[in-house]
Design brief:
two-stranded antiparallel sheet; 5-stranded antiparallel β-sheet; globular; alpha+beta; 9 strands
Length: 174
């Protein structure tokens, strides 16, 4: 992660945003200075989910792993995203099928990275994801308490952080 901030009033904004540096096997998918803004906390949860479960890149049917955060609700509603497949094989994790969408139209702004794939040690993959997720959470911990008026939004926010904290704790080795 390169930056993290609130788009509006930090007491009301439920998703932190910022710029991410994502480089895979020498190919830069996103980085600061590209004019791209991502939903940091939402992306962290999406990535935490891949620590145990394979994720097959399917942009037409699934949310991405790096999310824009422009949806009305947490974790949904915006096609601007970065997708890739995550496949666990023994102590290795294979990453492939990278696709980035820079527009709200799935037909426009689609960048496919057909030659980008990498196999990494599972422990290395976990360390990168956990570091990102811990940085995202630390930002919330030093921020003002959220003022959420709507019961549905409060329930979604609570469920988001329950899952986030569960996955973070499950994979954190002290």
């Amino acid at each position: 992660m390169e930056t993290q901030y609130w788009l509006s009033n930090e007491e009301e904004d439920l998703c932190s945003h910022g710029q991410i540096h994502l480089e895979v096997d020498g190919t830069i998918i996103t980085q600061a200075g590209k004019g791209e803004e991502w939903g940091i906390s939402e992306s962290a949860l999406a990535l935490l989910r891949t620590l145990d479960v394979d994720y097959i890149s399917n942009p037409e049917c699934k949310e991405g792993l790096i999310l824009h955060g422009c949806g009305i609700m947490l974790m949904s509603g915006c096609p601007i995203s970065i997708h890739w497949s995550v496949q666990h094989k023994s102590d290795e994790v294979f990453l492939s099928d990278f696709v980035k969408f820079t527009s709200t139209s799935l037909a426009e702004g689609k960048i496919v990275y057909p030659d980008v794939s990498v196999s990494v040690k599972k422990i290395q993959y976990e360390q990168q994801i956990l570091q990102f997720a811990k940085q995202a959470k630390a930002f919330y911990e030093i921020s003002k308490t959220k003022k959420i008026e709507d019961d549905f939004d409060q329930e979604m926010y609570t469920e988001f952080w329950q899952e986030y904290n569960y996955l973070l704790q499950k994979h954190t080795i002290e």
